[in-house]
Amino acid sequence: MKKWTIISSLCVILLLCNITVFGYTEESYLNLINSLENAKTSFDFAIKKVEEKNEEEKLEELKRQEELKRLEELKQQEELKKQNAKKTLKNEEKKKSLTNVEIKAVNNIESKKEITYDNRLQVSNIINSKLMKDTTGDNYYLNHSITGVEDGIGVPYIDYRTDFNMRKTIIYGHSSKTLNAPFQALQKYHNNYNFYKNNKYITINYNGKTYKYEIFSVYVAVAQDRYSDELEYFYKMNYSNSKWEETINLYKSKSQYDTGVSVNKDDKILILQTCSMDDQYYHKYYRANLLIFAKLI
Hints:
It is built from 6 helices and 9 strands. The chain is an alpha+beta fold. It folds into 2 domains: 2-83; 118-296, Beta Barrel (Sortase, Chain: A). A 9-stranded mixed beta sheet has the order 2-1-6-7-9-8-5-4-3. A hairpin with a 3-residue loop joins β1 (120-123) and β2 (127-130).
């Protein structure tokens, strides 16, 4: 465009100079008019070429963007396939370690069918909840409901390493300052002996059997890191007779108040664990777990 505009402009300028030097004639006038028309035609032609080029560039850019979008979609589809394949493999591996009854329950969860469970946890008259068992150690029920739906408050579940035939059974559940979490009511035991006196028993119905416990200790285990001795109750599972008696006496001695309940090496105990919501501990430590200890009676 620039080239044609310059040439046409030069022609017009030369004609004007000719008229100025040699005087005005009809011929010079006609030549001037003709040059102006040629300059306009050249300019219009140049503009058209530029517009055509711009349009071609736009089409090329549009094609390029569409191709990039198509490649990104293909990439996302491949990634989704990989994730689904990993999830399927994990579920298959998980099923291999389950009993037939548990496999049936998992299949029902995956098909989103409604399930009726007999297993329940009842803490005095303040908690009456479904009770699940973690079978793999992935804390699945910390953020899933009993039907397998993702759920921020989860459902109480038994530690995969423990059962009710062992010396120690641990059950976990969420507490929250804002949500109706399953173990929120346990916060009432914190530094509250009067509440404890009227709510000291726990009943568990599990796989057709009933277990009744009496609470003997309540305290908050505060840990600055994962290696803290305060988390011993969680990490250690096997004890000699003498060590077990020493351990449960330690649990009792840490209680926020004296419950008056005695314990010995022959006792099987239950630990209910949830996060402490007390402002003294809340979000101030690596862990601040409210622990309710009870013995089988």
